[in-house]
């Protein structure tokens, strides 16, 4: 700013001096003073231009009032029910074919536990897949046992283990799982095991004033799953039956129905149902494994009907207790039973057969129509 003022003063002084110079008539030429003025004016103009540049306002664009775009109405993504694929190996529980939960045993009793499982996975279970002990009490069962057959996805298999009741009175549970041929262990949904649960009841020690407790030497209820069952009658041939039902099998069925209501209103644990073939005068029979009779043995049981819905309907059958020796079938006793709201108690002395190895045979014969012949044997056994 000071430089510009000095230049202006200098220019003003030069102009005043020029006015006082003498004038001639000669052709005007550019005097030294004119040249100085011209140079000074150019210098001032240049300096004004330089001084104005830094302070000059620039045309900085003013932000426009363009409206800001607000939230759009695009709907938020919502969760979809994507189906989770089934795993390769997954089992599902179908039924306890033998030994329902809570079945009672005396110490040392042997029994066969059978589960029916379904392959709910996407991979076939090969015959080398295994059932393996997981936790609880193994009850003398193996650490592992091969399935022995293949099961395609959606197929079922009956898995059986031979077990022994522990020596002390208590409730025992053994948990089991499966293992594939790669060594991976799997089980039911949420990795839950399938299991067997029994109650062991030791007989009280006899005293001088107490009556001794009978010892069960053969338990037909526990052995029913290994018996040979046949349905027939109505003029047709016999059909081999698979123990465990289903209870809609028109050829007849034998299966456990523990805890269901009977015609007298009771609901005991050890109920064995034997329904004859669903024809007039239908029959069902079951042959048990060989047993050597001892002196003092007695066959004991109760017989009657299930009462689904509180009524046993028109049940009317003949119960037979037979035995087979050397291929010849003989009858020990029979009982005609209809639905009357009571159970019939059976108590037969077998001492006359002592020393003989026999196959005992249960049979139920329909008296006419068999549709409601829900015939049951309650806790059938041989006691000493």
Amount of helix: 10-25%
How many discrete structural domains?
Answer: 2
CATH level 3 topology of the largest domain: Jelly Rolls
Low-confidence stretches: 5-75
Question: Would you tell me the overall average pLDDT?
Answer: 83
Structural class by sheet pairing and helices:
mainly beta
Question: For the terminal residues, how far apart are their CA atoms?
Answer: 135 Å
The share of residues in extended strands comes to 35-45%
Give me the CATH architecture of the largest domain, please: Sandwich
Largest sheet: 7 strands, antiparallel
Main CATH class of the largest domain: Mainly Beta
User: Given the structure, what is the number of helices?
Assistant: 3
**How does the overall form come out from the CA principal axes?**
globular
The radius of gyration over CA amounts to 52 Å
Sketch the topology as an H/E string, one letter per element: HHEEEEEEEEEEHEEEEEEEEEEEE
The beta-strand count equals 22
Secondary structure: elements and pairs:
Layout: H1 2-19, H2 32-55, E1 91-96, E2 103-105, E3 110-119, E4 130-136, E5 144-146, E6 156-164, E7 170-179, E8 185-186, E9 194-200, E10 216-219, H3 220-223, E11 228-233, E12 236-241, E13 253-256, E14 271-275, E15 282-287, E16 291-292, E17 298-305, E18 316-325, E19 328-338, E20 344-349, E21 357-366, E22 375-383
Parallel strand pairs: 2-9
Antiparallel strand pairs: 1-3, 3-6, 4-5, 4-7, 7-8, 7-9, 10-22, 11-12, 11-15, 13-14, 14-22, 15-21, 16-21, 17-20, 17-22, 18-19, 18-21
């Amino acid at each position: 700013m000071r430089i510009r003022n000095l230049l202006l003063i200098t220019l003003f002084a030069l102009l005043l001096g020029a006015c006082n110079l003498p004038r001639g008539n000669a052709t005007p030429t550019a005097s030294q003073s004119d040249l100085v003025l011209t140079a000074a004016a150019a210098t001032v103009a240049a300096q004004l231009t330089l001084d104005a540049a830094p302070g000059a306002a620039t045309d900085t664009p003013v932000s426009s009032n363009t409206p800001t775009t607000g939230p759009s109405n695009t709907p938020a993504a919502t969760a979809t029910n994507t189906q989770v694929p089934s795993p390769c190996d997954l089992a599902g529980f179908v039924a306890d074919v033998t030994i329902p939960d809570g079945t009672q045993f005396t110490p040392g009793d042997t029994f066969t536990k059978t589960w029916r499982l379904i392959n709910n996975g996407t991979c076939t279970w090969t015959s080398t897949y295994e059932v393996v002990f997981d936790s609880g009490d193994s009850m003398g069962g193996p650490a592992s046992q091969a399935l022995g057959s293949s099961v395609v996805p959606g197929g079922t298999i009956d898995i059986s283990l031979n077990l022994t009741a522990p020596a002390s009175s208590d409730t025992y549970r053994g948990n089991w799982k499966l293992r594939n041929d790669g060594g991976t262990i799997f089980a039911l949904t949420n990795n839950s095991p399938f299991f067997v649960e029994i109650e062991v009841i030791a007989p009280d020690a006899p005293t001088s004033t107490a009556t001794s407790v009978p010892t069960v030497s053969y338990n037909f209820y526990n052995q029913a799953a290994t018996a040979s069952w046949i349905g027939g009658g109505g003029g047709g041939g016999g059909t081999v039956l698979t123990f465990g039902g289903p209870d809609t099998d028109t050829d007849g069925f034998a299966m456990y129905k523990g805890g269901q209501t009977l015609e007298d209103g009771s609901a005991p644990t050890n109920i064995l149902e034997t329904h004859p073939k669903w024809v007039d005068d239908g029959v069902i029979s079951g042959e048990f494994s060989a047993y050597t009779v001892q002196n003092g043995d007695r066959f004991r049981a109760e017989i009657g009907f299930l009462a689904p819905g509180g009524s046993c309907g028109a049940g009317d059958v003949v119960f037979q207790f037979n035995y087979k020796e050397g291929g010849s079938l003989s009858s020990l006793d029979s009982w005609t039973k209809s639905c009357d709201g009571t159970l019939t108690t059976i108590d037969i002395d077998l001492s006359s057969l002592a020393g003989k190895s026999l196959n005992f045979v249960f049979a139920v014969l329909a008296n006419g129509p068999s549709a409601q012949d829900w015939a049951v044997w309650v806790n059938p056994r041989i006691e000493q």
